[in-house]
Amino acid sequence: MTITITVEKDGYYEVNGNRQEPTVNLYIIPAASKLHRMLKDTKDLIVCPGVYDGLSARIAMDLGFKGLYMTGAGTTASRLGMADLGLAQLHDMKTNAEMIANLDPFGPPTDCRYGYWLWSSKAHKSQLGPLVVSKSVQEYIQAGVAGFHIEDQIQNKRCGHLAGKKVVSLEEYITRIRAAKMTKDRLHSDIVLIARTDALQQHGYEECIRRLKAARDIGADVGLLEGFTSKEQARQAVQDLAPWPLLLNMVEHGATPLITTKEAEDMGFRIMIFSFASITPAYIGIRSALTRLMTEGVVGIPEGLGPRKIFEVCGLMDAMKIDTEAGGDGFAEGV
């Protein structure tokens, strides 16, 4: 049988003489699936700046980053005004993650294949029994994030780049990973399960590798050894766990020596996050501006950074377009 399709100038087409109106089916690929594709279909290092609120996320998106990382330290500092000592609850983390993940369902226009994704820095606090793990994973899936950490720290956890960390037993850690894997499978989700270990301080490198291999063997998608003490150690971890993808958390002036994105890519890391990429510059900028206000009586905002510029970064033009195209007159006189 021969099928003849003729496309006309007005966009309509004919199939064996029958005129058809073109249809377009729009399907938004979930963030988790985008991340899976990036890990599977490319060999590129995925560089993710740490973001902690809507504005920092909007700025990263505006610059064209393919991935965003919601830092737990930044979320705790911005939402609670507290240090990263395990004080943020599931509600704090999930609410923030959901807001950021849904700022733009399509992601930045610089990469139409994948768009952007966000992953939350941790699934609730670290005293995670199977039921709490399962609840946390389900909440993150519903929030639209692409992935999350499961850690092995004890209840009184702290930032991965502080001293004095303690971890649970390997058996308890694996119970957490297994509960997370079972939940994502039950919900048929592509959400990326990152197995993180903070055991380096307490038990040494070999125990970290043992824990990550165990997590990998029961289905974790990515590994994270937190707090490398040397570049050689970071490079060795990639080799010891290859071809399993590893994530590098680069905290400048933290426990790990400075590793550039080029060095990380050469080592073989697949994802690199910069947890303090937004929160530390924000601290510097805010403190400087407020100090000037106190001493000079003005903030000293640079020319061109008035309210409209900030609002444009935060979606002003999209909002105007929606209102105008729907027949509204909210912006008839401009802004």
Automatic annotation (TrEMBL):
Single GO term (MF): methylisocitrate lyase activity
InterPro entries per record: ICL/PEPM (IPR039556), Isocitrate_lyase_ph_CS (IPR018523), Pyrv/PenolPyrv_kinase-like_dom (IPR015813), Pyrv_kinase-like_dom_sf (IPR040442)
PROSITE patterns in UniProt: ISOCITRATE_LYASE
Pfam families per record: PEP_mutase
Family: Belongs to the isocitrate lyase/PEP mutase superfamily.
Record's catalysed reaction(s): (2S,3R)-3-hydroxybutane-1,2,3-tricarboxylate = pyruvate + succinate
CDD domains reported in the protein's UniProt record: ICL_PEPM
Superkingdom: Eukaryota
Species lineage: Eukaryota, Fungi, Dikarya, Ascomycota, Pezizomycotina
Gene3D superfamilies noted in UniProt: Phosphoenolpyruvate-binding domains
The name this protein goes by in its record: Carboxyphosphonoenolpyruvate phosphonomutase
